[in-house]
Amino acid sequence: xxxxRRRPSSAVAAAALALMxxxxxxxxxxxxxxxxxxxRVWHYETQDSALSKAWDAAITTFEQTHPGVKVExxxxxxxQIQQSAGMILNSDKxxxxxxxxxxxxxxxxxxxxxxxxxxxxxxxxxxxxAKISDSASVPARYNDRGEMGGDKWVGVPNYGEFVLAYYDKxxxxxxxxxxxxxxxxxxDALAKFKAAGVTPLANAGNxxxxxxxxxxxxxxxxxxxWVQDYQTFSGKIDFHxxxxxxxxxxxxxxxxxGYFDKNDVGLKGxxxxxxxxxxxxxxxxxxxxxxxxxxxxxxxxxxxxxxxxGSKITLGSSGNLWVVPQRSKNKTLAEDFIDITMSPxxxxxxxxxxxxxxxxxxxxxxxxxxxxLVGQFDQIQKSDGLGYxxxxxxxxxxxxFVSATQNLMNGADAKSVLDEIAAPYEKQxxxxx
Length: 433
Prior knowledge:
SBP; Bact_solute-bd_prot1; D-Maltodextrin-Binding Protein, domain 2; globular; five-stranded mixed sheet; 433 residues; five-stranded antiparallel sheet; alpha+beta
């Protein structure tokens, strides 16, 4: 069964209405005469996800606090925005506020091109900067070269994210497999499931999950200096060194052993989640952005989450950004909308629906499963274990990783795959000299 795409439930609508009263004063005074205006909002969160529920509530609250302003909301796909943002934002069709991926190759590139509004002073004036830690704000801040960690805020994150392990506890119990706590135990679990005729790992070769696996395995052999060198070009990265070599060779070994199914090469992320939700694959390693959908859709078995046991560093960062395109026609209204998403009420909704709020009060997270998830993210943050994402350093690198991983699943040798992912990175590194 696929993850549901239902409209928000009446309970969510009621929660949104409950938010209206305490937020009634959040609109800026300049909105007094804003009747007849339109705020155009784009995001790519799937219906029933924690973030979609929160943004639905934020839109409802915005409409209540901005009489006469019409909200035109368009739900895009990640790929639609990833592939066409530059062209759209450089036209009169640009939205007023949009969710966009963070990183040098995405938000950094658009910032360098002058397509995003500088929100630095706004972030200070509205208190957003004070709510977000320095480390979490790194992917929101860029320098003039479009490299993250600079002084200019080009977007605002509302949540955190990280890649973790999801386990089907019923299948683990059925086949007598122990939930792993280290890499040796993880590989032992993979072997036992395969011996029982079960393909253990959910996967999707034609989307981010498979390339996330490569970087996750590389991080298991890396330290923080390697991560900094890789993400910021502050030191040379050897793509035939121990980190990337281990990643590609381990991935290939797991393919050969049948821990991954080679036929997953053409699947998208939603297909991967279906494998887990339907009870066909006992282990899914993926982002916490799937968590809210799992809470809604998994009815037939017990499941749990854990920090991936094979590495002290994992993929993760603050979440995607709300950005205000330079060609937005209603920038103050866009800022008002972002302000609502940073409110205590919306932040608590994010946490209680299964995501990781960036500015919520801990005692506001009442759902036990969600509180556990937030605690796991805190564990990663406290150990300085966020390693960001593999495609961030270079423009167009996301597509390179998808292609390279598909080639590996189709039988390419390790050296050619390493050469493939090295080429655009090294070109980018050379251009900085």
